[in-house]
Every structure is written in C-alpha cells, then in structure tokens.
C-alpha cells in the first residue's frame, strides 16, 4: 500500500514520473508485457489430468498420423499432372513395345489407362448392364479383336473404354446408361493423350542419349497420331473424315453436295472461307437462312494462326552463323486471328483492286490492244535489223606490213620523221595529262576508300547495336517468362460432341520429314490469345552442310487447321580454338619482367651483404 501511495505522490509531484504515467500508464516507465491463454477450468483441474492426456495422445499420435499417411498415400499415386503413375508405366511399356502405332493400336493403348479402372479410380463405375450393352455395341462397330489376350488392354474396363471411344468417333448413339461413362472417358482423354506424348518424347531422348541399337525409339508417326487422336476426340470424328463435319448442320448427306460440286472443289475449311459470299451461299443452298448464318458465325470464329520463324545462335558474336555443335534457338512468333478477320481483309483488298479496274476497263482494253500491236511491229523491225556487224581489224606491226607500204615510207622519209616528232610531242602532252588525271583519280580513290571505310564502320556499329538490342530483348523476354504466370484460358473450342468446355491449345515442334526424325521436342502452347513468342532449342548437326527441316504447329482441338513452315539451316565448320592470343603474350611478358626485376633485386641485396661482411 505504501508503494502505491509513493508512486501516486511521485506522479503528482515529479514531471518525469508524470510523463511516464501519461505515456505508459506507470510512473516507473515501460514495463514488461505478459500474455496468457484462457483455458477452461476442467482442463487444468488435477482430477481430469489423465483424461486430458489421453485426448491429446489420441489426437496427435493416432488421428494426425492416419490423416497425413492417407493423404500421402493418395498423392504418391499421381504425377504432377494428376495422372496415375500406373498409367504412365502402362503407356511406357506399350509405346516401347510398339514402335509404330497406328490409330487403332493407339486407341487400344489409350483405353488401358488405370483412370478407367474402378479398382484405382473411384469415379470410374462398372455396372452389371455393361455385360449386355457392351457386346451389342461391339457387334455394331465391328473390327474389334476379342481373342487376343494382352492385359490390361483386354480387361473389361479397358474394353468398355475402347468401345465408348470408338462409338464417339463414329458419332453413334449409346444407351442412356452409358452416356455418363462415355462423358467421363472423353473428359479424361486429352490429359491422357498429353501424358502419352510426354512418354514418347522421354523414350526418344533416352534412345538418343544411350545410342544403343537395341533401344528402339518411337517413330515420328506415333507422336503425330497422338496429336491427331486428340483432335478426333474433341470433334468426334474418325481419322479420314472431312474437316467440314466440324461445322453445324453439315452431315454426311450434305457433305457430298459440298465436296463433289462441279464448280467448287471444297476439301477444307480454308477453301470454304475463301469463297465469295454469293458463291458460298449458292454452294450451301440446301441450308435455311438461320442455319446458314449459324454456320458462318462458327466458321468465322475458327482460328487462323501465322508463324514467323527466326533461327539464331544466342550468346554468340555472330548470331546468324550456325556452326557444328552449336545450340540453335528458333524464335517462333505466333499470331492468332479468326477466319473472319483474315478473309475480310483479303476481300476488302480485292474489292479495292477490282473497283478501279471496272471503272477503266475499256481504256485498259484499248491500251492493251495498242501495246500488243506495237510489240509485234517492234519484233519485226528487230528481226530485219538483226545483221552481223564486221569486227574491227587491229593494225599490223611494221614487220608484217606489205612491201608497198614500206617503200612509200622510205621514199617519204622526211615526212615520216616530221610526223614522228609531232607524234612524240603529242604523246608527251598526253602523258602529262594522264599523270595529272592519275593523281586526281588516286585522290578520288582515296576519298572513296575513306567514305567506304566510314560506311563500313557505321554499318558495323548499327549491326552491333541491333545485336545488343536483340540480346537485351531476349533477356527481358526470359525475365518476363519467369516472373509472369500466364493464364491457360485462351479461347473456347467449338465442338458439337465434347461434353465440357475446352480451351484452345497447340503443339509446336520441329521435325525432319525426310529422315522421319524429331529434331525438337513438342512445346505445348497453352497461353496463345493474340500473340505468343516461343523459343525452340536443339543442337546443330554434327556435319557442315545445308539442312531442311519443318516447323509444325498442330491444334489439339481442331482438324484441318495445322500450319507447316519450312526451316532451312546452313551449318558451317566450327571456329578453331585460338592457341595464341595477344593478351596471353602480354601477360607472359609481364610475368617475365617481374621475375627479372625480382632476380635483380636479389642479386643487389646479396652484393650489399658481401660489402657489409668485408667491412
């Protein structure tokens, strides 16, 4: 009590204590803070100590390890792309076993994924009615070999998935009970095909690194069939069907009228879009106006992607010079537009060109006729005037001249002497003029050489600045790619038979079509909205020469919209490694001079010591 009264008295009388009281709530200044946890009384009660201990032990030693263990057990079954590891193992085995996979074999391997097995995936269902309905669909499809025993590809779940995939590609109706299972299989198929592409690429890399004849790498055809199967799955089309069936209201019956037309031979979507509006309407006359407008809206929304290719060698003085063993970087710039935008521009340009031609059509015909007549006349005159001209004869030397000319020269000796003197004087004046002309010409040449040297220096500086800017842009591009996380939501795909909304993605890779060899691994372009830059890297060939590759851009959703562009590389010999360099010589000379100076200092010190000893 006395302590409190003393502190209160100090707070009232002492200014410093009063400030502490106003700022910290205590006349003595800031005090240590303490925290506490409010717990129920029954937890800290001594009677309940055993019960609390049992609850804590059950929560942290039994329940928590079980939850973490179950989560870990489920997570290790999947890869980073949420694909079962068992599925990856199945794909690796069968892709290695079958080097060249056709479409039929590819569908069979795709259906063997463990995602469709109820034992490994609870979302996959197996019904008793499958034993009745699946055999009926097999008979309707035909061409399915049931005698071959090749597990897990011949297991019931795999056979069911294969049949439902084939019915989807054939656009066949399935019973309502199987529609849910078919949609589940279709939703999983794009991710599974991407996993199969990754497996094929890994096996190709392993085959190149090992360089063993026994290790067989998958073929380029197997990789491209996987990409094509993705397009077929999204659009619900078989392998050799027309891409025009992707459009609404165009079916097999109507397709014959379009593709077999006498005047318009339409085989692709680009052919249909490139027609004029009136010609296109005449071709699709069997459609009503409402259906025709819907077809045009869908057709105009299809993507049209252009590629700009630039091969180079980064981090090198001469980036355009590709040498043996260098790392080639192909910068591919992808620009996406819709079909409607591209062909509207082309039609406007054509209309602008046709408008003046229609206005002056008569004048053009007149000019053309006159020009044609003048051309004929000119050709006739030229043909008449084309005669061989006599060649100019060179003067003969005096020893070979005829004797009459020699006699005339002897008789007229004085005249000849005078003429010779005049010629000598003329030659002297001409030689002086030639010397002055030579001097002026040499001065001009020196001036032109200086100008050319300046131009070369300026050009070299501009080239260096351009290379420096390109290098800075590439560095900034890499930094942006590392920092930015682009969304994979690009453009929704129009599909009549796919069960969910899918985004528009692409595959970009380089291949040697002649050798059937993959040069650069496929890059999955998932962020192409309007414009995208992609770098494809691969080692240059081991021998100098000219090489012709092909850059492919394939859609994972649309058929018939793939882009192909040639890539020509001229590979040179690698530059020899310099054995002697001026900087190294100067460094060696500097070391020798330092050694000589140190030796001189040592000898001077020894002489001084000897003199001291003598003294």
Task: Write up what this structure looks like.
With 615 residues, the chain is α+β, with helices and mostly antiparallel strands. It folds into five domains: 1-30, no CATH class; 41-75; 77-239, Sec63 N-terminal domain-like fold, CATH 1.10.3380.10; 242-301, Orthogonal Bundle (DNA polymerase, domain 1); 306-354 and 461-592, Sandwich (Immunoglobulin-like), CATH 2.60.40.150. The protein has helices at residues 2-13, 15-24, 41-44, 49-75, 85-97, 103-110, 130-141, 156-169, 176-210, 220-235, 252-259, 269-273, 277-283, 289-301, 339-359, 361-385, 403-411, 413-483, 582-614; strands at residues 303-312, 322-323, 327-338, 506-512, 517-525, 531-539, 545-555, 563-572. Strands 2-8-7-4-5 form a five-stranded mixed β-sheet. A hairpin with a 7-residue loop joins strand 7 (545-555) and strand 8 (563-572). Helix 5 (85-97) crosses helix 9, helix 7 (130-141) packs across helix 8 and helix 8 crosses helix 9. GO terms for molecular function: protein transmembrane transporter activity; RNA binding. Residues 353-472, 575-615 are annotated as: Disordered. This is SEC63 homolog, protein translocation regulator.
